[in-house]
Amino acid sequence: xxxxxxxxxxxxxxxxxxxxxxxxxxxxxxxxxxxxxxxxxxxxxxxxxxxxxxxxxxxxxxxxxxxxxxxxxxxxxxxxxxxxxxxxxxxxxxxxxxxxxxxxxxxxxxxxxxxxxxxxxxxxxxxxxxxxxxxxxxxxxxxxxxxxxxxxxxxxxxxxxxxxxxxxxxxxxxxxxxxxxxx
Length: 183
Description:
mainly beta
């Protein structure tokens, strides 16, 4: 096996570091990912307590931005331990087999001042679908604030199997909302 000359290795390392220099560090204590759905026609808000977001964003070049999010499904919190245990079961999220939900952007386009249109692949419970949603971005206190809402249909991702496919009890429409602060 040949080794790279020292200069090539240093150059490669420098390029790697320069490429990652635009990546923003997310503040998990101030960032949120929530889901809103209707159960028996009553809105229910829940949150994901554990997630990571990797955002590469430069306000001068918004179309070059990239983002990915990974959510720990077992961290879904409906505010009640029994409900939380129920939604991790096979009929709902099946957290044992599919512990993570992910989003990976494929395109981020400027849509005017402080607005972006984001396209990418959302994977939940082993099912992947193309999604597009609007995103706002603003600077507050030297940090970037990204906010958006992504409407999905839970049955697209097999969330609610068997008797739970019936949408008269739990609606098919779910809105994933996020507020991510990064620097």
